[in-house]
Amino acid sequence: MDKAGIAAVLNDIATLLELKGENPFKIRAYSNGARIIETLGEEEIDRRVREQSLEEVKGIGEALAQKIGELRTTGRLGFHEKLKASLPPGLVELLQIPGVGPKKIRVLHEQLGVDSIAKLRSACQAGTVAALAGFGEKTQAKILEGIANREAYGRRHLWFEAFAVAEPILAGLRGLPPVKRAEHAGSLRRRLETVGDLDFLVATDEPQPIVDWFVRRPEVKEITAHGETKASVRLGSGLQADLRLVPPEQFVFALHHFTGSKDHNVQMRGRALERGLSLSEWGLVPAEGEGTAREKAEKLGRKTTVKNEAQLFRALGLAFIPPELREGQGEIEAAEKGGLPVLIEEADIRGVFHNHTTESDGHNTLEEMTRAAEELGLDYLGIADHSKSSFQARGLDEARLAAQVAAIGKLNASGRFRTHVFAGTECDILPDGRLDFTDDVLRTLDYVVAAVHSAFKQDRASQTQRIIRAIENPHVTMLAHPTGRLLLGRPGYEVDMDKIVDAAIANGVIIELNASPWRLDLDWRHWRRAAGRGLLCSINPDAHSTAQLAYFRAGVAAARKGWLTKDDVLTTRPLAAVKKHLAARRG
Exposed e or buried b for every residue in 63-77, given b needs 16+ CB within 10 A? Predict the structure, then answer.
């Protein structure tokens, strides 16, 4: 077990002992032990466990050293497991409610029989909590509010929405005089498709005014922690936000550490050890020698030559690894060999396909969508309203589609907008793989986006063959949202994605990266291998309003996680090149 896991177990033991009403000195010994372990380097822990010298570290006694050794070598601790089994599991869950600490939980359990959040809510609603000594009406109301907040906030959030919440907070932090540097960290900085909470890291020599500013922001609904160098709050948006402040000389190391991911960090620490170094949130220091990793880093202090992450990676013989790639999936090996891609940027996007108007289920007209695309600086806009089988989305029949094609041609000819409009359709793939329009209708269009909108429960083989049959139609240009997933809503349907990718490459069909924050489909985990085999991507916002055209930015974030370059994406090409590509596809 790594040091973070050991510290978590020791802290959990302290909490469980407090719930049982154990001796405060015994409780404090485990809490102190957790803090001490966090300051030690992984290699030092290994050495001291091996040499049985943990007791030489101030604050670690014989019993604690034995337990740390057991955790390090076996990944479990019998004492911890027995302690957990001795308490109702719901008691520990009660600690998730702000303001309900171990002492209050013990009173609630002993006097009211409360051993779960559900029972705590019932007791509060009945008014019996307020009647307890040391509680009262205000505490009871706060507990009920905390329970409601836990239910609202105990979920993940879409990256795009979390980023919109985080950006003004980061801008505010950077504007504070004591702040020398400030950045996002965690899964938000890695641009993971969903985010559990927001992490902010600040470099400063004056932490207190920054912490005070953070917890007093108007969007803060609840303060869950407020210390000298850390703070945690719950925001009205439903997100938890955590702030951590470090001395300027430690900022780069802390930023790398708290950006993660866990797998990336483990591999980076291993690489450092191979070079006789210890990498942690405190610094990059010699692995051997007296003192903890933190003490060594503080001793070196401002002498460190590492001023940014590029220098940190260079110190370990690596090219800079963009945060999006730090998932422990081969990025370190690629950085060592000079094989990292030049990732696509938002500024590379020249146009967007697969967008809707009021002709189907969109909220803006053709002209409004075109004007909005022009204001975004886009050279081209692809319209693709639904086909007739999507009756729930007011799908177009043949006559309405023909009228729309004529309207688009007239708009382009008028010269009113610099942005060129391509006429297309989001054509339903029927359950047997046929398309919703005949070939004669499809050949009148600039491009065709084929999509599954029904029969999601088909078995894997049938769904795969259904999609492949559509891909093999010579008039299909792109495959839309290939798994049909809705993030935080529904999983994708069963499909063999390797076979789908093979068929798309063989038939010259593009697979979209649907940039709707609720989809981000095809998932980033597939793109590196698929693009390496020659699959072309189109980052499509699937916009149903003018504002949603900007969703392409979420698509770029996902494309970067998928190792995609500018050359891998159709919509980075200039208008003339895109016209040529679509014309060649139509034959």
Answer: ebbebbbbbbeeeeb
Which residues are CB-neighbours of 367 under 8 A, at least 6 positions away?
411
pTM of the predicted model, to two decimals?
Answer: 0.78
**What CATH code is assigned to 258-337?**
3.30.210.10
Burial class (CB in 10 A: 0-12, 13-18, 19+), 237: middle
pLDDT string in tens for the chain (587-residue length): 778 779 889 988 988 898 888 888 899 899 889 889 877 878 889 899 999 999 999 889 999 999 999 999 888 899 998 988 888 878 888 887 877 888 899 899 999 999 888 999 999 999 999 999 989 999 999 899 888 876 665 678 999 999 999 999 999 999 999 999 999 999 999 999 999 999 999 999 999 999 999 999 999 988 988 888 999 999 988 899 999 999 999 999 999 999 999 999 999 999 999 999 999 999 999 987 666 666 666 665 555 689 999 999 999 999 999 999 999 999 999 999 999 999 999 999 999 999 999 999 999 999 999 999 999 999 999 999 999 999 989 999 999 999 999 999 999 999 999 999 999 999 999 999 999 999 999 999 999 999 999 999 999 999 999 999 999 999 999 999 999 999 987 889 999 999 999 999 999 999 999 999 999 999 999 999 999 999 999 999 999 999 999 999 999 999 999 999 999 999 999 999 999 999 998 87
Structurally, at CATH architecture level, domain 157-246 sits in 2-Layer Sandwich (3.30)
Angle, vertex CA 543, rays to CA 538 and CA 546, nearest 5: 125
DSSP string covering 209-255? HHHHHHHT-TTEEEEEEE-SSEEEEEETTS-EEEEEEE-GGGHHHHH
Instruction: Annotate 46-88 with three-state secondary structure.
Output: HHHHHHCCHHHCCCCCHHHHHHHHHHHHHCCCHHHHHHHHCCC
* CA-wise closest residue to 586 among 479, 503, 475: 475
Instruction: Tell me how far CA of residue 315 lies from CA of 264, 297, 308, 484, in angstroms.
Output: 16, 15, 11, 43
Give 298-316 as a DSSP string: HHHGGG----SHHHHHHHT
Residues 267-292 as b/e (b if ≥16 CB within 10 A, e otherwise) read: bbbebbbeeebbbbbbbbbebeeeeb
Cα(151)–Cα(153) distance, integer angstroms: 6
Contact 504, 510 (CB under 8 A): yes
On whether the 3-153 domain is CATH 3.40.50.360, my answer is: no
Q: What is the identity of the amino acid at 332? A: I
Domain spanning 346-586: CATH superfamily: Metal-dependent hydrolases (3.20.20.140)
Strands 220-226, 230-235: pairing kind: antiparallel
Map out the domains of the chain as residue ranges: 3-153, 157-246, 258-337, 346-586
